[in-house]
Each structure stands twice: as structure tokens, then as C-alpha cells.
Amino acid sequence: MVDFYQHITANKVKSYVLLVLFLFVVILLGGVLGEAFWGSFEFGIIFAFIFGVVYSLVGWFSGQSMIASVSKAKRIEKKDDPYLWNTVEGLSIAAGIPMPKVYMIEEESMNAFATGRDPGHSLVCVTSGLRKRMNRQELEGVLAHELAHIKNYDIRIMMLTTVLIGVVTLLSDFMLRSFLWGGGRRRSDSGNAGAILVVVALVLAILAPIIAQLMRLAISRKREYLADANGALLTRYPPGLANALRKIRDDHDTLVDSANKATAHLYIENPMRKAKGAVNHLFSTHPDIDDRIKRLEAM
Prior knowledge:
Layout: H1 4-37, H2 41-70, E1 73-75, H3 82-95, E2 101-105, E3 112-118, E4 121-127, H4 128-133, H5 136-151, H6 154-180, H7 185-188, H8 192-217, H9 222-235, H10 238-250, H11 278-282, H12 289-297
Helix pairs in contact: 1-2, 1-6, 1-8, 2-6, 3-5, 5-9, 5-10, 6-8, 9-10, 10-12
């Protein structure tokens, strides 16, 4: 098994690789956008670059707050839920990391996630349904799994991916709306080359969000297996997390209402798993939950 330090190094490298790939997509999208609508490839690149940098910086420094807000999560203080607070504090001490902020989503389905740019700027969030229906060992197992993500910097990649998907999606949406408003007509009227460029721009506007999602899926599913293993190591009780995952799997309410496709990969289990079919399995961000349970039971 890859140890924590190797995994932290690998995740930092993946962060830079992800940024490079993202920059390439943004440049391509911006250049085609500029050529198709303003007649200037360079202007499109500059526009997309400035937009991407500003959005990414905002996301980098306030990403965890943005994600908490989108998820409709409310911050929990010690007086609000002493047991939950003390459990997070105790596990953080055992993991050797600063205690993250604690949040809760008023939601009957059972789920949890962690996010932030580094262990010193992180949060852990659970749904009220998970808090109510998990016993002590199960709750500790879930929280230990999330703290493992924080300790090994998975949260940086997870948050960065969410922010970058937002940039690409907004640029694509801008391009598609420009088509609806007739912004590409001027270029299409300039001859065959202009018409071809408009078609390329339209195809790219449609495919860019899909490419961004595939970049998100490039984050290895093994990080969930590793967080399971490291979480179980932290509590010294693998059945706790295994039983928690079993409860989550068998829950009648599998949909977290405030979750969306950009934030789904943050959760301990897919919060939108009501969606069925081969395509949804192909784009799944989580490994099979039954396999995760089997691995924990074999420890």
C-alpha cells in the first residue's frame, strides 16, 4: 500500500497536472470563442485566461465556503453538538492534523464529505440523517475516512476539480448563449471557413463540460479505497466504517437534494446514485460500495 507521504506527494503532482490540463482546455475554448465571435483568437485566449485566473483565485481562497454554501451546509459549534464536535476533535488529534471546521446539512439521506485547500483550511460535513442513524463506531468510521482525505491532501484536488469544472462550464455556457443570441452569425456569413469555425465552436462548447468531467474522473477512485484503509487504521476498527457504508448503501433515501454533478465526487458515497444505467456507471466517481465493504471486512 502507498503510504501517506507518497500519496501526499502524488496528490500535489496531480494538482499541477490538473492545472496544466485545465489551462489547455481553457485556452482552446477561449481561442475558438474569440475567433468565432470576435474575429480574434488572441483576444479569446486573453479573455478566457483572465476569467479563469480570477475565478480560480476566488475559488482557491474561498472554495470551501462556496462549496458549503452550495451544499446548504451550516457550521456547527461545540455547543450545538458536543458529541460530534468532540469526535472530530479527538480524531483530528489522533491523525495529527488541525481540527477542521464542522458543518451539517439538514438532509435525511446519509452522507458526508470533506473539502478545503489544505489541512489548515478545511472542513468536514455530515448530513443530519447520518448523524442521527449512525452509532458511535460507525460515525467515527465515517469521520475518520473524511479526515484521511484531509491529511493526504485529497481535499485539495477535490476542491480544485470542483472550481475548474465551474470555469469550463461557465465559458461553455457563455458560448452556447452567444449562439442563441446570434453572435456567431457574423463569422458564419464570412464563407465556408467561417461556417466551419462556428461549427467547431459549437461542438467544443458542448464537449468542453464533458472533457472537464473526464478530468474530474481522472482523479483515481483508489483515493476512496485509500481513505477507507487509512480511516480504518485511524480508528483501529474497520467494521465501524464497513457497517456505516452498509447503512448508506441500504438507505431508502439515496439522494442528497443539495448535491450536484460538480460536488458529487466530494461525498463518501455518490449522493446522486438514484440515477441508473451504463452511462451513469461509466461516469461514476466512486468505486463499488460492496467492494469497499468487502475490503474493510477483510482487514
